[in-house]
Amino acid sequence: MGEQRFILGTPATVPSAVRAATAFWIASTFTSWAVPGIITLVRIGTHQAEWGWLELLGVAFGAPFAALQVWAALRLLGGAHWARVVLTLVAVFYVSSAVNNNWSVLPVVSLIPALAGSVLMWQPATNAFFQPRKGLPASDQQAGR
Fold first, then answer.
1. pLDDT tens, 27-58?
2. With b meaning 16 or more CB within 10 Å and e meaning fewer, what string describes 17-34?
3. Which residue, 35, 58, 72, 89, shows the most beta carbons closer than 10 Å to its own?
């Protein structure tokens, strides 16, 4: 900790908890969107899916949400407070998905890294990293994040 890193075009000191939270969120995205998408595409390709076009549509709409989740996770490294809020709401969605699916394996596997990322990004030690930088105009603070 305390070392300078070149992240998203700007140098920043990123706490290890924020780096770990980012990794957990990317893992959660992979398990919640990529794995089911790959399974669906394989089922469609082998003609095992009854409603192939409908499942394919689900994958097509899921991909942009997965990309937005990864983007928000990467914005954590830049100190974007809004990314913490958005990802916390995503974690709530994962909890409801696990409950609605009777705690089946895939929603729980997606939920675990999302909860780990949520806990890490809200640690008291990380709060200072997400605070606005003093001495900079508000427009410069948002541009750097």
1. 999 888 877 777 766 766 666 656 566 666 77
2. bbbebbebbbbbbebbbe
3. 72
Chain-centre distance of CA 84, in angstroms? 9
Q: What is the pTM of this model?
A: 0.74
Q: How far apart are CA 77 and CA 56, in angstroms?
A: 33
User: For tokens 């969107």, what's the residue?
Assistant: 33
Residue with the two structure tokens 């305390």:
2
- Which value, to the nearest 10 degrees, does the dihedral of the CA atoms of residues 71, 74, 78, 84 take? 80
Confidence of residue 114 (pLDDT cuts 50, 70, 90): very high
